[in-house]
Amino acid sequence: MSSASAAVRIEGVHKRFVDKESGRTIVALRDIHLAIPRGTLCAFVGPDGSGKTTLLRLMAGLLRVDAGTIDMLGVDVRRDPQQIQDRISYMPQRFGLYEDLSVQENLDLYADLHGVAAEARVQRYQRLMDITGLARFTNRPAGKLSGGMKQKLGLACTLVRSPELLLLDEPTVGVDPLSRVELWEIVEQLRRDEQLTVIISTAYLDEAQRCAQVYVMHEGEVLAHGTPESLSQHACGRCFTASGDSRAPGRILQSQLLDAVDMVIDAVPLGGAVRFVLNEATAPDAAPLHAILKGARIEAEAPRLEDGFMVLMRAKLQHAAAEPRSAVPRLAARASPAPDPLAAGGAMIEVRDLVRKFDDFVAVNSTSFAVSRGEIFGLLGPNGAGKTTTFRMLCGLLPATSGFLQVAGVNLRTARADARRRIGYVSQKFSLYGNLSVLENLEFFGGAYGLRGKRLRERIDTVLEQFELRGLERTPSGHLPGGFKQRLGMAVGLLHEPDILFLDEPTSGTDPLARREFWRRITSLADTGVTIIITTHFLEEAEYCDRILIQDAGELKALGTPRDVWVQAGHSATSSLNMERAFIDIVQQSRQAEILRNAEVAHGA
Amino acid sequence: MFALLHRLIILCRKELLAILKDPSSRVVLIMPVFMQSFLFGYAATYDLNNAPYAVLDQSRSAVSTELIAKLDSGGVFHRVASLTSEQEIAQVINSGEALLVLRFGPTFADELQAGGVADLQVILDARNSNSAGSAAAYIGAVVNAFNQDWSRRHGGSGPALTIESRAWYNPNLETRWYFMPSMIASLAFLQTLMLTALSVAREREQGTFDQLLVTPMSPTEIMIGKVVPPIMIGLVQSTIVMMVTMHWFEVPMAGSFVTLYMGLVFFLISSVGMGLAISALSANMQQAMLYAFMLIMPLMLLSGLATPVRNMPEPIQILTYANPMRFAIDLIQRVYLEGVGIATVWYDLVPLSVIAMLTLPWAAWLFRHRLV
After folding, report:
1. Does residue B63 sit at the A interface (CB-CB below 8 Å)?
2. Whole-Å CA distances, A162 to A71, A153, A193, A195, A511
3. What mean pLDDT comes out for the span B33-62?
4. Burial A395-422 (b: 16+ CB within 10 A, else e)
5. Which is the most buried residue in A62, A353, A451, B230, by most CB within 10 A?
6. Does B3 reach chain A within 8 Å, measured CB to CB?
């Protein structure tokens, strides 16, 4: 590649930060070298804290490098950051939309800030509205848009002028699959039509698979880079699927495989079977492996980017720890099972004709379902479909407008406070006291649930062990890295051994490694009889659930096991399932039906 | 019962930790209290000290010189200029060089000798009516004393009637004596109101409130957990101001500490109630802050701290019944300066209790029912 064709050329870049509280130096980036050709789509992938955002901010000239050079579009960023900022666009993770301003006012504001000429605007707006589909919403306040729409508006504001290069920092976090697909279509269209160079950081490897170049980052270093195909080759010849009893949830076999740490690198339930990656030392016909697989049918698979990524990550982690990965700590069986009035086969959660209105807007419309003990129950739906509203009503945080609702035999909103002792709650964003230490948070919430003295000590010890938070007891919880915060949230939610655990989008924005670990814990929790209610944007995660519920525009669209839902989406019962496909089909079918119905009503009138 | 107490204790502990663990908020809670007590003690005063004045002595007599000497040595006035013409009067007043000008007419001494009556002209800069009033009163007192002395010396019987004022509870009429005890209530008020107004709003904003609501703790318990720590902090702040008032500014405390603290506790409960109601109403910290600021100014103005409540128009006087500060200031001044007991000031506790009994249950209800 000649230097003229490179949009970005980074050589020997180092960046350190000093933590103000502790005075410690944190190395954010270490000796980064990379070159990105013009007009290509390039992705940075890696776990939380691997330096993706820092690298993007350095490229945008928002931070200064400690050493090395960054050459953007032929300009040294350090020497002339203003020129770079005039020629590129950067969309940070939390884009600064003005929530009280309308879509149009936001666009105008950013056009003014970037000094876009009035004549140029007309054409540009037209094009942005066309590709983002925001034309219908120009007068709506940005704060009233769904998460996916907000991201599209953020992208549109970033693109009010035609940049030569676009930097996007995790643009699809918290965005539902449908909107994610649409966002990516916009980005690809821009690259094609305007020869735009796009650099994206993402935790989602299926997204990175669409890019020409992928840089795998880990703890401030580039671990590997290349095309998605070449990175996939790290797992070449080691990927398999095992399909056994299709009625049992795949997560059981998956967790057994994942725990065989000396043989298996990665395992996920996929398409009704379990996909796994073996390490170099293990042959697919090894006897200990077959002891786990118990005669399941095994087929070799072509490696995906995610498989290659997992191989690279595991190798790196093993190397760093100098000891083999340990299985996620197993949960001890309950010391004293809580007395359960519904134990005799009754439902833990029962919902009939649940309705929630906000003024005229129907957020949840006559929804009915039941969840039995020990089930993992997933609430799925696009942004604004009503799953968070349903979730909050179940937890007793929001009153229902009408309908019947029982959790563990009571309505949590009206029941005595004691009934809430039976549920645990982990919210989407970190919601513990940030300036209190890990231990202080645990002590407080333990006390809130009526634990004290020796019992409290024991439970705190157990969860510290279980969620690997030992050694961090004194750390202010707000200073914990993202993954640890989530584990602390779980630890607090489970401190009082609830019968039901509510989890609101726990895996949003986390990398595959952390997601595996998270689901491994959930699986073992469900094994001990805890009922789990979870909302998620990741459709492949639906396969960890015993049953799922799909909502759209407040209506229940599908309910059942992942395979039931696949069939409800109009596919054959024996074909290999693809939850993303099923979800998109169901939502699109229901939206088309809605349009048809409206047309009929209009026609009839 | 024990379980309830245990929950309340851990709630208060959590709240105090959350407030006090942050070094900057520790500083913000203690430093301004000291700073403002000294600031008010020294700076907020209507007393005249070294007030600049000028003299236009056209009589150039022994009498006028004697009177000027009395003013110069009194410590209240400080002569900045001796004028020679009437044109200069406007100049020194307009420029703010002198607060007042004393003009002895050319015939001042002759008239006095002849009839015993002469005019002394005082020109005041009344752009600040407070200081002008005090200056006029002081000049009046000096002249009054001079008159008596004069008639005695010149064989007259002296005026038939002289007024002798005795200022009770503040013998030297020092503004500080009036301001500092009021500060015991008002400084603590500002911060407890802010602290509570932000507390629930902060938890809502950070998502911790949901986490709190799903625990077995009832809204009433959560509210008590929110009420007690700011009251404790408010009491500490009041104590600091009181210590500064008593030991630094040496304003003697005439009443009983028990009565004073009882009044303070009632007052703080009612101000925390207002703060919590603001907090429960606000969707985020920014709103809570705006509401709090919107309230603080009128509450200060209507408290009687700067201007007496009885000078206000009737409808506004009624409005002041919703202001906890009005009653707290009244109570503290009476207890601190007069030394009265609870039998005399109990009526101040009634409106304070009513405010608390309205705002606290309302806030508790809002906790659960406000939809964000």
Report:
1. no
2. 20, 16, 11, 11, 32
3. 85
4. bbbbebeebebbbbbbbbbebeeebbbb
5. B230
6. yes
Helix, strand, coil in percent for chain B, rounding step 5 = 70, 5, 25
Overall number of domains in chain A: 3
Asked if residue A263 and residue A134 are part of one domain, the reply reads no
User: Is any Cβ of chain A less than 8 angstroms from the Cβ of B308?
Assistant: no
My answer on whether A206 and A282 are in the same domain is no
pLDDT of amino acid B307: 81
- What is the percent of chain B where pLDDT is above 90? 24
Structure-token pair, residue A58: 């350095």
Beta strands in A359-420 (DSSP E): 361-372, 376-380, 402-407
What are the tokens at B239? 């104590």
> What CA dihedral angle connects A439, A441, A442 and A445, to 10 degrees?
160
Q: Which residues, 6 or more positions from A110, have their beta carbon under 8 angstroms from its beta carbon?
A: A157, A158, A160
Q: Is the ipTM of this complex over 0.95?
A: no
Measured between CA atoms, how close is A397 to chain B, in angstroms?
A: 7
- For residue A590, give the amino acid letter: S
Q: CB-CB: which of B7, B22, B210 is closest to A448? A: B7
- Cα of B360 to nearest chain A Cα, Å: 20
Residue with tokens 């809002």: B366
pTM equals 0.80
Question: What gap in Å lies between CA A401 and CA A392, rounded to an integer?
Answer: 13
Predicted confidence at residue B231, as pLDDT, reads 94
Identify the residue whose tokens are 């949590």: A412
A601: amino acid identity, one letter: V
Domain contains A601: no
The reply to whether A423 falls in a domain is: no
Q: A39: closest CA among A214, A145, A193?
A: A193
Give the A window 118-137 contacts with B, CB below 8 Å.
Answer: none
Q: Is the pLDDT of residue B129 over 80?
A: no
Residues A507 and A585 placed together within one structural domain of the fold: yes
A213 with A188, same domain: the answer is yes
CB contact under 8 A, B207 and A431: yes
Residue of A nearest to B6 (CA): A447
Helices (H) and strands (E) in chain B, counts: 14, 4
Report yes or no: A21 at the B interface, CB cutoff 8 Å. no
What are the chain A neighbours of B372 within 8 Å (beta carbons)?
none
In a domain, A512, yes or no: yes
Chain B nearest C-alpha distance from A447 (Å): 6
Give CA separation, A454 vs A458, A464, B29, in Å.
Answer: 6, 15, 36
Q: Cβ atoms within 10 A of the Cβ of B118, count?
A: 18
B51-153 is a CATH 3.20.20.70 domain: no
Query: How large is the average pLDDT for residues B186-199?
Result: 89
Same domain, A217 and A305: no
**Packing angle of the helix pair B2-20, B219-243 (nearest 10 deg):** 50
Domain boundary among A171, A191, A226: A226
> Which one of B11, B14, B216 has the shortest CB-CB distance to A420?
B216
DSSP class of residue A186 equals: H
Is A587 inside any structural domain?
Answer: yes
Residues spanned by the domain of A579: 347-408+499-595
| Tens-place pLDDT, residues A101-147 | 999 999 999 999 888 888 888 888 888 888 787 887 888 888 888 77
Q: CATH number, domain at A79?
A: 3.40.50.300
pLDDT at A387 over 60: yes
Type of residue numbered B324? P
What distance in Å separates residue A304's CA from the closest CA in chain B? 38
Dihedral of alpha carbons B313, B316, B317, B318, sign: positive
> What token pair was written down for B142?
């000096």
Q: Which residues of B touch A421 (CB under 8 A)?
A: 216
The predicted structure's pLDDT at residue A287: 81
Residue owning tokens 């000891």: A323
B51 DSSP β-pair partners: B77
